[in-house]
Amino acid sequence: MTVYFMDGQFVEKKHVAISIDDRGYYFGDGVYEVIKVYDGELFTSKEHIARLFESAAKIKLVIPYTEAQLLDIAQQLVISNSISVGHVYMQVTRGVSPRIHQFPDPAVSPMVTAYALSSARPVEVMENGVKVKSVVDFRWLRCDIKSLNLLANVMAKQEAVEAGCKEAVFVRDGFVTEGASTNMFGVKNGILYTHPANNLILNGITRQVVLRLSRELGIAVVEEPFTLEAAFAMDELFMTSTTLEVMPIIQLDDKTIGSGRPGEVTVQLQKAFTLQIPTVVAGS
Ligand SMILES: *Cc1c(COP(=O)(O)O)cnc(C)c1O
Hints:
Layout: E1 3-6, E2 9-12, H1 23-27, E3 30-38, E4 41-42, H2 45-58, H3 67-80, E5 86-93, E6 111-118, H4 123-128, E7 130-136, H5 151-162, E8 167-172, E9 175-179, E10 183-188, E11 191-194, H6 205-216, E12 221-223, E13 226-227, H7 228-232, E14 236-241, E15 245-252, E16 255-256, H8 264-274, H9 279-282
Parallel strand pairs: 7-8, 7-15, 11-12
Antiparallel strand pairs: 1-2, 1-6, 3-4, 3-5, 5-6, 8-9, 9-13, 10-11, 10-14, 14-15, 15-16
Bound molecules: pyridoxal-5'-phosphate.
Pyridoxal-5'-phosphate binds at residues 34, 146, 178, 181-183, 202, 204-207, 240-242.
């Protein structure tokens, strides 16, 4: 039996029913998080839940729970669905109300839904690396909000997948911002480059873990935008996300990156990242 959380209750999946008037459905008017589960334990859950509250505040949405309550809901979903390795998805919309663009007045209570699913770590691709495709970053100017409005990301990812690639690399005014659902990193002469955490990217929790690990390992970090041309010339490229962890990139468009194999710094950071997660699932 699969247990979901919906509007204050744990219910069987087959009993989950969301109204057509949910503002998430009409407008993507809501925010979400994906939290990884390793060996039945939520990974960096406090950071994810804190970011959910930050995203909600940025769209003037008040979540009707405390951070501790949401963490408890996530943990209960992991337990009741017997998740060992997987992820928890949580979303909060502005609620259910007849379709008008402005916020409902009087306000309705936000709709909180969540579930936990088993999902394997992408170990094979993590070892060999993936191809990515550059696409124009035609998103809005509040990419710092993890909002449900993902149409531009969906279009970009589809374009990448149709080209046989794992991810789309957004390029705004010639500069690499991030991926459709990942953050982008480059390594040149031993220095790690990534776009600064401003309104043009989503500041990934995995990004933040990787930046901390880099500093601990003594890898120089430069949080500055780099151009697509500079990306082609990087010694190494990789991307990060909750589900992809530290994912090596071996080809960008028609250009091979470095040797065409996952780079030295990338592998070093992958290993350091793996040390952060429970050894039973991390393997050797
Ligand atoms: C979620 C997301 C990321 C990655 O964030 P993590 O917290 O590391 O999973 C990067 N970019 C976008 C656009 C995202 O939505």
